[in-house]
Amino acid sequence: MAKGARSKVKRRWRALRREHVENVITQQETEAISKKLEASILGVEYRTPEPKNAFIYPNDPTAVIPKLKPGRIVDLRSSAIPGSGLQYVGARRKKAQEVSSEDEEEDKVEEEKHQMEVEKVRPKIGKIPRNRPQCKKSKKLIVF
Fold it and tell me: What angle do CA 69, 73, 77 make, to 5 degrees?
């Protein structure tokens, strides 16, 4: 039987193709547009002058015969799309994203900095008396 339009595998393939086109074409176009915007903000001329058309100005030596620019060819074959080898019928995707070790190290450093700042601000307390009220669920001290 054929796969329906709502098939999980077909949806995943469409998502992979969409992501591939985004990476190949759209990202380059947005970078070019942002460079042009930056140039216009700075007041620099970013447009290159178009040469004259040789059919309209046949006697002009700088005139050029216009040519059709070919469009970009995006290779959508499965061998060219990254991550396509991981998609097949029955494939499972990981539910939770893996956190890289660099992110964990950065989080630890930020946590340590935060703890140091808290210790500077919080007054030094010796031993906490036992009769101080505690939260029943978390068993943490209630600070007044």
Answer: 170
Q: What is the pLDDT of residues 36-53, one digit of tens each?
A: 999 888 988 888 888 999
For 96-140, what is each residue's pLDDT tens digit? 555 566 677 788 888 888 777 767 666 555 555 555 555 555 555
